[in-house]
Amino acid sequence: MTWSTLATPLLAEGLLTSVLIGVGILFVVLLGIVATIKKCYMVVGPDQAIVKTGMGKMDVVTGNGMLIVPVIHRYELMDLSLKSFEISRQGSEGLICKDNIRADIKVAFFIRVDSSEEEMKEVAASIGARRCSELETLRELFDAKFSEALKTVGKQFDFVELYDERDKFKDEILKVIGTDLNGYRLDDAAIDYLEQTPLELLSPNNILDAEGIKKITELTSAEKVKENQFTRDKEKTLKKQDVEAEETILALERQRVEAVEKQKREIAEITAREQASARKVEEEQRLEAERARIATEEELGIASENRDRQILVAQRNKEKTDAVELERVNRDRDLEATERLRVVGVAEVEKEKAIETEKRNIQEVIRERVAVERAVVEEQERIKDTEEIAKAERAKKVQITAAEMKAEEELIRQTKLAQAEKESSELLAEKIRIEAEAKRDAAEKETAAAKMLAEADAAKAAAAGLAEARVQEAKAVSLEKEGSAQATVLEKKAVAEAKGIEAKAAAVEKQGMAEASVELEKYRSEATGITEKAEAMKIFDSVGKEHEEFKLKLNKEKEVEIAAIDAQRGIAESQAGVVGEALKAARIDIVGGDGEFFDQITSAVKGGKAIDRFVYNSRVATDIKDTFFDGNAEYFRDQLTKMIGQFNLDTDGVKDLSIAALIAKMMGMADTDDMRSQLTSLLGMAGSANIADQKTSRLLGGSSDNGKKLKGGLA
Predict the structure, then answer these.
(1) Secondary structure of residue 690 in the 3-state scheme
(2) For a Cys staple, 129 with which of 51, 58, 225, 243, CB 3.0–4.6 Å?
(3) Nearest-CA neighbor of 148 among 127, 173, 129?
(4) Residue of higher predicted confidence among 631 and 176
């Protein structure tokens, strides 16, 4: 191998390395150029513009990009978005209109930099790209110009025109200001607030304000005069309508009183005839009702006796059935207890016999083994001892295993026996419960027909029935607790016996524990049976309670009906006695027959009593009675004066009215039925005394002569 052969690969490898290094350097340079361009190239949106200076010229671009070289160029951002600012003129500086009325006004102007390249360059050169869109700059530039435009346009309109023609006012403002504002553009204007300047803020020393005050005063005064004229016309019209309505009401009231009096007279005649016929029919209907009631009471009495007899028979049958069923249950329970004791005794004997037999077999095996071992030579003494120990251990294990098997068998047998006894007790309790429910259903069906009549008796004896039910429930709880206590005592006794037997041997220990478990299950089963029996007795108590309540309710209804009959009979006897005593000393001319005479007597008595009750229960009627029947005219005058004051009537206004017209007017003003009834009675009594047509002034004059004349008229 020559040197040229070795140098060729080395040269090729060096050349490749140089090329790779050159490519890497070129890539890094390109990345640097791209990063520099990206950093220097700035892009803005349509609401901004870039103002670039340098190299002797100014460039502006918006919504696009521009390359900025940091050392060569300088740039600023210009805000092209729409700006708004308000011009407010209020109080003494308010806008003066054409009619010299001053107005408070607020106008918002919406302005922005024009987006054309020449306008943006002009604004940037004169104001600056950053300052041109600041509100303070805009206010400094345009506040005076816009205020002057407001004053110029405002002087062209009256205040009312200014208020009614806002759009025209705004258009005139835009026309005066123009849209081209040295690089800025005014897009729109809005009137935010426009009201008349208050009078207290106007200066009387100002010529324009004085003219405005004069015009405002003239306009408001004219409007006040018109308003006052309208108000007075309205009052006159209302007063005229009130007078006409009052006259119409008085005329209608007079017609109403005449019609009411005529109607009362006709109603009184018709009522008298109809009441006589109605009383006759009423008494006939009452006679029929009394006959029907007496017949119904007779039937109720017969039904009540039959019901009591049926209830008594049902009670006797229930008591007989309960006694037979209780005797059968006791007999079955005693037989089951005897059989259970017999089975337990036989099992105990068999268990003892098996244990003794096993013990004898074990002893026989031991004796045979000892006899065989005695024949072994003395040299094998050590082996014999070892074998004897092993055999003794094995025999011990066999004995323990056999005893455990016996104990487990006995435990299983006792458990099965206790389970069978438990199931038997549950079946017996279920049987008792089903029979009790059947008897309860039968008792409910037998007593359903008479339940409504028996509710009164049940209410009277509900307390006794509830007490008896609580006693029965307490007895059941006591039996349940007694059974639980007995089971607990026997359980503890069995555990104590098991602990005593435990000291004898392991097999006897398991046997005793099995016996204790069996006894525990047995007595738990007995306690469960006693509890279910108590629940069954509660069912019987519920049926008995319902039956007793039913019986008590029947007795109460019976006593109430009897008491009502006795009360009616006593009332009738008393009424008959009163009528008899009243007729003893009466001189009677009998006219009419067929009970008409008795009807007339009762009607006359009732009418007299009704009049007496009205006279003595109504204060107004009592006053009239004292006046017209006792002759106290002064007292009647005082009472009538008091009633006039109660209705707020003017004495001078009613003195020319007759007594009947005065009472009729008070009836129209009364707001309660009781007051109207009293005034109607008062009017009737005044008519009966022949003073209804006399003027009220005779009664309210106050002189003794008038009192004497009135008393003479009353007489």
Answers:
(1) coil
(2) 51
(3) 173
(4) 176
Determine the pLDDT at residue 108. Answer: 92
Contacts of 183 (CB under 8 A, 6+ apart): 113, 114, 119, 120, 122, 123, 126, 127, 132
For the chain, the domains span: 43-76, 80-202, 278-375+383-586, 618-714
Helix (H) or strand (E) holding 147: helix 135-154
Whole-angstrom distance, CA of residue 131 vs CA of residue 184: 13
586 CB-contact burial (10 Å; exposed 0-12 / middle 13-18 / buried 19+): exposed
Q: What whole-number distance in Å separates Cα of residue 412 and Cα of residue 407?
A: 9
65 contact partners, CB below 8 Å, separation of at least 6 = 41, 42, 43, 44
Element (H, E) at 104: strand 102-113
SS (H, E, C) 468-487: HHHHHHHHHHHHHHHHHHHH
In order of 16, 355, 366, 492, the CA distances from 382 in angstroms are 102, 34, 19, 51
Contacts 24+ apart (CB under 8 A), 379-383: none
Map 624-652 to HEC letters: HHHHHHHCCHHHHHHHHHHHHHHCCCCHH
What tens digit of pLDDT does each residue of 533-586 get?
Answer: 545 445 444 544 555 566 566 666 666 566 656 655 655 555 555 445 544 444
Which of helix, strand or coil describes residue 198?
coil
Domain 80-202 indexed as CATH 3.30.479.30 = yes
Axis-axis angle for helices 451-460, 506-584 (nearest 10)? 100
**How do residues 574-589 score in pLDDT, each as one tens digit?**
555 544 554 444 444 4
Cβ-based neighbours of 60, under 8 Å, separated by 6 or more: 49, 50, 51, 52, 78, 117, 120, 121, 124
pLDDT at 627: 47
In this structure, are residues 212 and 198 in contact, taking their beta carbons and an 8 Å threshold?
no
> For residue 371, which amino acid is it?
A
Strand partners, 79: 48
